[in-house]
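User: Before I run my own analysis I want an independent prediction to cross-check against. Here's the chain; please return only the structure tokens and, at the end, one sentence I can use as a sanity check.
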Amino acid sequence: MDYRYDTKDEAREFHKQRKTFIILNDMLEFLPEESKKSHFEYCQTKGLDKIHF
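Assistant: Structure tokens:
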């Protein structure tokens, strides 16, 4: 397993306090507030792999 992409619970708690966004294809996109996904997990739903992330 590549632990750089494994989000631990304490990190998730920290990031829940912030507004999460990505810039993909020159577009700004905010993750839903109820999302518990990391940036990488969310980008995977958009079709990105580790190399392109």
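Sanity check: The first strand starts at residue 21 and ends at 24.
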